[in-house]
Amino acid sequence: MNQLGALAQVSRFTQNFSMENIKSEFQSLQSKLATLRTPQEFFNFKKISKPQNFGEVQSRVAYNLKYFSSNYGLIIGCLSIYTLLTNLLLLFVIVLVVAGIVGINKLKGEELVTPFGSFKTNQLYTGLVCVAVPIGFLASPISTLLWLIGASAVSVFGHASLMEKPIETVFDEETV
Q: In terms of pTM, does the model score above 0.85?
């Protein structure tokens, strides 16, 4: 019964999509992409060096996480897409669940009438759960998520700790 409640919450979430919400999300995405740094700046090998101590690592990471935040978000997004494309079963389960919820919501609470009988909405959600959960376990979402977290952390924190800060910021820190 708890799973049906969770599915009902997801269905309410999908009903909250409107053109205004989509437009506002698109505008926020555009503003985020406007802060994207150029590849020449992001992959500037002349600014890569080994930090002297852990304090410098912390300083570099703090600065670079703010400065390259859009680039890091793009890297995490690309890694997420790569993860789904290499785990096709997980992608199938996600598409199945989303399509199932959207399809059930299109019924608007009415029964689905088939030649095999009529099915109520809660029966359809139960059937979706009974199919998606076992296949979802086979798709190994936990190991995929852990790989994504690890690959993202190594990529982002590796770049942030090795990329030097601009010289101007070093002088600003000393005067404070």
A: no
